[in-house]
Design brief:
single chain; Diaminopimelate Epimerase, Chain A, domain 1; 4-stranded mixed β-sheet; about 140 residues; alpha/beta
Length: about 140
């Protein structure tokens, strides 16, 4: 699917609402990025975007990026070192599995929202929200 068509069919308001709901339970930060680029390795592309977006600057190093490249039909879910230290590889595998079934059924908004919800639940276990927590990163869906 071409990226403009993919973006047009997304219900971005639902995605933003899911990010806001998830972040009410955790100090973690979640972002969604949609790339128009054709990428060979979505993890490498996601890591570059993570750095470009300044996501490593969160207080607890606990940001998560859901990176989608609709053209080549690839995605990656990556996070900062604080999450890796506490959650391990199983965290990322579970997130990807929770999204893949929806993507295979062309339920893209649902897949992204499912990933956000599950990430929020997992983050809340390891990074509960603090009374002085602030929203460190924008909640909107970003595209290049």
């Amino acid at each position: 699917m071409k990226t403009p068509q993919f973006i047009q069919q997304l219900r971005e308001d639902e995605i933003v609402a899911a990010i806001q709901a998830a972040e009410r339970k955790t100090s973690g930060e979640l972002r969604v990025f949609i790339s128009r680029q054709s990428v060979a390795d979505p993890v490498v592309a996601a890591q570059a975007e993570f750095a470009r977006l300044g996501m490593e600057k969160t207080r607890e190093r606990n940001a998560v990026l859901i990176y989608l490249a609709p053209g080549p039909r690839k995605f990656a879910v990556i996070g900062d070192r604080g999450i890796h230290e506490r959650c391990g590889e199983a965290f990322w595998q579970e997130l990807a599995r929770s999204m893949t079934a929806h993507f295979r059924a062309a339920e893209f908004t649902e897949g992204i929202v499912q990933g956000i919800k599950r990430a929020g639940e997992l983050l809340a276990e390891h990074f509960p929200r603090h009374p002085d927590d602030t929203n460190e990163l924008p909640n909107r869906v970003q595209h290049d």
